[in-house]
Write a structure and sequence with these properties.
The chain is of the alpha/beta class. The chain is globular. 52% of the residues lie in helices and 13% in strands. Strand 2, helix 3 and strand 3 form a beta-alpha-beta unit.
């Protein structure tokens, strides 16, 4: 099963109420938001979409006003960084022991019409680029949710670019230029292709000059792959990596895992 298939199933698990909440965590710019919304629309699933955040009170009111709905929270790093907001979300995602999901919040600014406690019967899909699992309140949130770590292998990224190029009718010259430049060490996403196409539409003679800085290499990832190719011994790999990059042992192993995925 590829990552796109997993995204479909994780989305539908929550859309159909089999699991009350799902978090999809992954690199930005690869269509998480677009794909999840398309899956739901194709299946005629109604949902409410939110991609802004202000205060814990605003989050509480949003959940209250949509307490029987399927909610998508997109790009919610601000919510996750706020322990009060995470505490509110936890009530929506997991039952309190009596089979009900109860959300509570007290504030002097609470509108009279909004109760300080209510039962949440909706479902929640959270889309984000990153979760800081070193933070206890964020780690606790993950334990209450179905979590998909949306990591696209290089081959799937290339297939997605080709699909976007076809859907948006991007000229073959532009698509070929991008596909010839990228490799598994490149930093790129769907927006890269779209921006380069905009340069092409602006000037058929200067577009490559304008686009030459859009695709860059992840130097750390490249060094990891290089030392792994040169040395079979892990300690030798690590010593050369630290010498060439000045980065830590922990960073070496984190990037080594990325190359091996």
């Amino acid at each position: 099963m590829n990552m796109s298939d997993k995204l479909y199933h994780f989305t539908m698990l929550t859309a159909e109420g089999k699991i009350p909440s799902t978090m999809i965590v992954g690199e930005g710019g690869w269509g998480k938001s677009y794909t999840v919304q398309k899956i739901l629309r194709d299946k005629n699933k109604k949902f409410k979409y939110f991609n802004t955040y202000s205060t814990p009170l605003a989050l509480y009111m949003t959940l209250y006003e949509n307490r029987n709905s399927l909610i998508i929270f997109d790009d919610v790093e601000g919510i996750l960084a706020d322990s009060k907001s995470v505490a509110i979300l936890k009530g929506a995602l997991w039952d309190s022991g009596n089979g009900k999901r109860i959300i509570s919040y007290k504030s002097s600014f609470m509108q009279y019409a909004i109760k300080p406690q209510f039962e949440f019967k909706g479902n929640v899909i959270i889309l984000c680029n990153y979760v800081d699992e070193s933070k206890p309140h964020q780690r606790a949130l993950l334990t209450r949710m179905n979590v998909l770590r949306y990591k696209l292998p290089y081959e799937e990224k290339i297939n997605i670019l080709k699909s976007v190029a076809s859907t948006k009718k991007i000229p073959a010259e532009v698509t070929g230029y991008v596909l010839n430049l990228v490799n598994k060490f490149s930093i790129f996403n769907i927006r890269t292709l779209i921006k380069i196409n905009e340069y092409y539409n602006y000037s058929k003679t200067e577009w490559k000059y304008l686009a030459n800085n859009e695709i860059v290499r992840d130097e750390t990832l490249y060094v990891i792959a290089d030392v792994m190719k040169k040395h079979k011994n892990v300690n030798m790999q690590m010593r050369e990596f630290i010498k060439r990059t000045g980065l830590s042992r922990a960073t070496f192993f984190r990037y080594k895992k990325k190359v091996s995925e």
